[in-house]
Design brief:
The protein is an alpha+beta fold. It has helices at about 10-15, 20-30, 40-50, 60-65, 80-90, 100-105, 120-130; strands at about 1-10, 30-40, 70-75, 115. The longest helix has 12 residues, at about 120-130. It binds 2'-deoxyadenosine-5'-diphosphate (DAT) and magnesium ion. GO terms for molecular function: ATP binding; metal ion binding; nucleoside diphosphate kinase activity. Homotetramer. It catalyses: a ribonucleoside 5'-diphosphate + ATP = a ribonucleoside 5'-triphosphate + ADP; dZDP + ATP = dZTP + ADP; a 2'-deoxyribonucleoside 5'-diphosphate + ATP = a 2'-deoxyribonucleoside 5'-triphosphate + ADP.
């Protein structure tokens, strides 16, 4: 069984989408391993998105992710990273299919309500970063 890191971003938290997002992961067959509400520091956010530091949208991304509480989760299941990314949908909600979380609940890439790890290495790194 693999584990992946998932986070409801400040827009999803503020819009009251945590419960519906948790339900989708449970309905899919994932098991919730750990979860907590957090307010990220700038340092934590920059560390999490370190690989995107060179992007033009990096400062905007960090401003957004520290703008309010987030809901951090660890989910366990078969092919957890791939299955979670399928539930989440494409990065740009304009490309995300209906039935995916971003396809159903988001419209703008800069506020796409949810994060999911993209590899086994990033899942391990992110679980450590958020849950020690
Ligand atoms: P994902 O979150 O699907 O793994 P990513 O890791 O490439 O996508 O990017 C991280 C986040 O950065 C993404 O969820 C939203 C933001 N982002 C990506 N591309 C962007 C863009 N062109 N403009 C603004 N924000 C962007
Ligand atoms: Mg990513």
């Amino acid at each position: 069984m693999d584990r992946t890191f998932v986070m409801v971003k400040p827009d999803g938290y503020a819009r009251g989408l945590v419960g519906r997002i948790v339900a989708r992961f449970e309905e899919k067959g994932f098991k919730l391993v750990d979860a907590k509400v957090m307010q990220l520091s700038r340092e934590h956010a920059e560390h999490h998105y370190e690989h995107l530091r060179a992007k033009v949208f990096f400062d905007e991304l960090v401003d957004f992710i520290v703008s309010g509480p987030i809901f951090a989760m660890v989910w366990e299941g078969k092919d957890a990273i791939k299955n979670a990314r399928s539930l989440i949908g494409a990065t740009n909600p304009s490309d995300a299919l209906a039935g995916t979380i971003r396809g159903d609940f988001a419209i703008d890439v800069a506020s796409n309500i949810i994060h999911g790890s993209d590899s086994i290495e990033s899942a391990e790194r992110e679980i450590k970063l958020f849950f020690q």
